[in-house]
Amino acid sequence: MPKLVPVNQTRVTFLSRSVNEGYARAVLAAFLTQLDPTVPQLADIKTAVSEAVTNCIVHAYPGTLGPVQMDITLFEGGVVRVVVRDRGVGIEDVARAMEPLYTTGDPEERAGLGFAVMQSFMDSVRVASRPGHGTRVTLVRQLERRA
Ligand SMILES: Nc1ncnc2c1ncn2[C@@H]1O[C@H](COP(=O)(O)OP(=O)(O)O)[C@@H](O)[C@H]1O
Ligand SMILES: [Mg+2]
What we know:
Blueprint: E1 6-15, H1 19-32, H2 39-60, E2 67-75, E3 79-86, H3 94-97, H4 114-121, E4 124-130, E5 134-142
Antiparallel strand pairs: 1-2, 2-3, 3-5, 4-5
Helix pairs in contact: 1-2, 2-4
The structure holds adenosine-5'-diphosphate (ADP) and magnesium ion.
């Protein structure tokens, strides 16, 4: 794989309040504007990032609030990388957590499909987590050139 050359980068940090899911989406959309993405490309990336951010909001800090950090880096050739991280409870078994339909949340509210959605909309999804220390989700997508 050719070396990725970064072109632009931004970082935001916000509290794990559900209202900030919309904030994260807005920041993402605003920053990606410079790539002139198609409507479907933008929708895909926003959907995937929303799932990662929602997981920090819903799962990382049970009964409390904590920081969520989102880093967006644009590389030459239209490659977008979004890293979403928290300092929450972490995930004991990442492989299991990523299985479709697996959830530790309320099954009435959670479908257990967040990671499956991320994988379907992004080229790569990497999850690193340390129980008691937090979770980092790295999402990468190459935007195909417009016809
Ligand atoms: N940031 C996170 N911190 C702690 N646990 C997480 C985090 N993200 C995901 N998980 C765990 O992975 C499981 C699967 O996540 P996901 O596929 O998004 O399904 P859902 O959010 O519907 O439960 C969650 O139920 C939770 O146990
Ligand atoms: Mg989820």
